[in-house]
Design a protein that fits this description.
The protein has about 270 residues and is an alpha/beta fold. The protein has twelve helices and seven strands. The chain has a single domain, classed as Vaccinia Virus protein VP39 (Rossmann fold), CATH 3.40.50. Helix 2 crosses helix 6 (about 75-80).
Amino acid sequence: MKKVTLVASMLIAGLCSGIVHADDGLDKAIKSEFRQAKNASRDIYRHPTETLTFFGISPNQTVVELWPGNGWYSEILGPYLAKEGHYIAASFETAPSNDTSLSRYLAKAGTKFETWMTANKALFGKAKIVTFDPPHKMELGADASADLVLTFRNLHNWASVDQLENVFAASYNVLKDGGVFGVVEHRANKGMSFSSGYMDQTEMIALAEKVGFTLDQSSEINANPKDTKDYAKGVWTLPPSYALGDTDKAKYQAIGESDRMTLKFIKKAR
């Protein structure tokens, strides 16, 4: 009886202290030498162990990551899912039909990401890339085929082209019943514009619920109370972007990365 009580007390203490224990495979992927040192150095701000565990990831899942960018989370997710699961990177259009500075930038980033994934194919197993270019290319996979859809710090990008609801709907469609839509995004103060890079948490929850999701949990894993959110260059003033260059760099370095919402939505069976 004393042993049971002791174990229960230890579990409660762990939960209250915020301690999270990743499964061995996830821990190995996060600590892997495959990850670039500059990416691993940001773990203190992005908390990949706590974040992915909060979203309920497991190694046998089909996981879609929306706009993986330079592959910060891909370095973890690809190898972690390679043996039993399936990683799908919903990346940028590499051959855009329109010629703008934005389309060229995204195409260049998408091509670089594709080259990198191909070069590391042995570590990624059957991982694949699909083109995700709202509103032109929106299919993330067959309906009800994914266990988890993840997006990290991208909502403001889709809001800027009025495609946020379409992105949420596409995520809903590709998920199985019971599937999880995991969102991490810079968190705005009331009344801030998406042009700052920050988004209103209440509005994001309402939009997700509008397309059919149910909010399961929110977490303060990626909160940062030091972030005052009142910068001339928006969220990009903070690391790692340092939009002001060396101006007050030590000040922004001391703040760290942005205050972020971490939201876990569920697609419930209808």
